[in-house]
Amino acid sequence: MEHYDLVVVGSGAGLTLIEEALQKGLKCALVEKDKLGGTCLNRGCIPSKVLVYPADLIRETEHAGKTGVFYGQPEISWSTISRRMWQFIDRNQQIEENLRQIDRLTLYRGQAQFTGLDTLQVTDERQGHTDPFTADMIVLACGARSRVPQIKGLAEAGFITAESFFGPAFPRKPWSSLTIIGGGAIGLEFAHIFSAQGTRVTLIEAAPALAPLEEPEISEFLEKALIRQGVRVLTGQQIVEAEKTTDGKSLKIRTADGRDSDVINSEEIFLAAGVQSNADLINVEKAGIATDARNYIITNEYLETNKRHIWALGDVNGKYQFRHKANYEAEVLVHNLLRPDLSRRSVSYQAVPWAIFSSPQIAHVGLKASEAIAAGIPFQVGYNHYSDIAKGYAMGYEPEDPDDGFVKLIVDEKKKILGVHIIGPQAAVLLQPFVYLMNAGFRCTGGLKQEKRPHTRLIPGLFPPCSEAGSLDPLAHSMVIHPSLSELTAWVIENLEWQDPAE
Q1: Does 503 have pLDDT greater than 70?
Q2: In this predicted model, what pLDDT tens digit does every residue of 9-41 receive, in sequence order?
Q3: Could you tell me the CA-to-CA distances from 469 to 161, 349, 436 in Å, in that order?
């Protein structure tokens, strides 16, 4: 039976571990059933942003009149937009070609499945089962997939998910009308993409508000913005039945209290009702791996499962399902599994940022006000609108404007940042400095002992109060929203090189 030092299931963030392990000279195997590169490259954050940015430009031209610049109706080339998107996705082919040329790496193409406590095999529809194999270390980075709710007639009517959209169901031109089920990040981004292209979009959300994980005032602001952009927003709705019609598809809906109902007709249905764990696809029960009530793999602060030689990262552990979170977890595992000379690192989710690339854009890190109240934390709240600053006015935002976005800052009694919430242009970039601040300071353990360190500097400017202050540590230990312009400045630290002063 073949045995490896390391097996990684999933080629998204899991590739980070494979690369480091190969550099250490380990014998590795990588298992992937879909295109190489994972969700982010092939059907998630990157290709969706290639579609989002043109939509951003369209909305910006509509707003530009407030500054005295007027554009005509934009001419949109869907073929150009599509070509650029597929051009990026097709990088998965180069990734696969490169991986196949690496010594000490076996690339298995198919569905990984446990056959016993420490044994895996790979199932391929065309070639059947591989021989079983084992490993000293197994890392599960197999992600999640679109959740398909039980709706009468939905399968017969047909629908699109993120998986099929970035595949055989990708449209040759924008649909004339589109119904999106789900008012979370995916649904909101696609509502923005297609409404800007001229598609008549209906957005249906079961919760009382869109973006239900955001602050109530942000959800309300967003809903009003979408309505002004021509999106029909239906919240607090239950979908009763789907049906295929002669010219498209229909959904019968009713309010949560059952008092009102309606029928929504459109050319296509886009299902964005959340995701579900892929743990069931790999037969985790045969390995005795513990999962929670939602079937996500349970991990501790070191990303360990209940099996000593198996770890899980990314979407499959159900904790903050963002690529930048998975990247962070991969770096923690690289440190813990492949650098035994260093002390173990635990994961921290105290400052996990995220963004919704809708119109307007939303970004968020830390607690909501309701969460601070539930935790019994005294706090202060501050607001600042785009119109309150000169740059915001220059961009065309004035007080009382319906599109005048804002930042909401929540701090405790000692001015510690508890949460930051932003809605408006470049929200993801504006959020990132707060993420660094939330990661700064708590690692001040070097230099003088804590009890002897003075609260103020005796000679200002002579030395910092802790060795990490003013350093790159907060950047190196912070998650950076992916994909956003903040990555431009954050990852410059990866390119630092020593310079010879003599040169």
Answers
A1: no
A2: 999 999 999 999 999 999 999 999 999 999 999
A3: 46, 21, 12
The answer to whether residues 238 and 372 touch, using CB atoms and an 8 Å cutoff, is no
Best CA proximity match to 471, nearest among 453, 452, 493, 455: 493
pLDDT band at 462 (very low <50, low <70, confident <90, very high): very low
Beta strands in 176-217 (DSSP E): 177-181, 200-205
Same domain, 368 and 485: yes
39, amino acid identity:
T
| CB-based burial label for 193 (10 Å; 0-12, 13-18, 19+) | buried
φ, ψ for residue 395 (rounded to 5)?
-80, -5
Average pLDDT in the chain: 90
- Token pair for residue 107? 């690339």
Report d(CA 6, CA 337) in Å as an integer.
10
Instruction: Pick the closest to residue 161 from 186, 198, 136, 137 (CA basis).
Output: 186
- Give start and end residues of each alpha helix (H) in 25-69: 38-42, 45-63
Q: Domain range for residue 309?
A: 2-146+276-338
Residue 170: name the closest of 244, 78, 274 by CA.
78
Is it true that the peptide bond before 74 is cis, omega within 30 degrees of 0? no
**How does DSSP classify residue 75?**
P
Q: Are residues 17 and 131 in the same domain?
A: yes
pTM of the full structure? 0.89
